[in-house]
Amino acid sequence: MSATSAIAILAVFVLLDACKHWISHARGTGHAWLLQQDIIALRRSIARGSASPRAAAAAAAAAAAPSDPDRARPFVSVAHARERLLRDKERALTRAQTPALRRAMFLSHYLHVAKGVFGVGVVLALWSGDEPLFEVQRNAVWPLGRWLAAPHGQSWEAGAVAVTPWTLLSGAFCVPLSDANVCVFHPSPGFNI
Question: Which of 25, 93, 133, 149 has CB atoms 3.0–4.6 Å from 156's, for a disulfide?
């Protein structure tokens, strides 16, 4: 194999992540995704809070001592604040979910899936135990030399890079690369997907 195939693998990953970043920048899918994650976390927190022993003890204490409402107030107000925050975030997500945003999130999701399918396809297609994908100087990869040659770490020389580690590194490296706005092309606000 050659370094050309390694560069091609990296280029495809960069292209897929740049497209995801571009869609996120053009349509604001990043904000909607963050709202979805916040809603999921709040729902879990509310469910866990109502089922926790601490919440049950607070509810029992509030029921047993109705004459002391100040003792139960912190637990009730925190629970109500979480529920109110959840409702506000759900409303914000509902307002933000336009047909164009849903289509952009759909495309972004399937670009993410395509990245995974491409990575698995590359590993399966290029998996040959004969030779490394490419080689670099031994001291350039000193702490990771044997790992980069996996699963042939003991038989290949240090500095040899196999398909699987290169694919994993390429896929992981492209996400922060695209998030750091290395992409020079940003869509205009009037662009329609």
Answer: 149
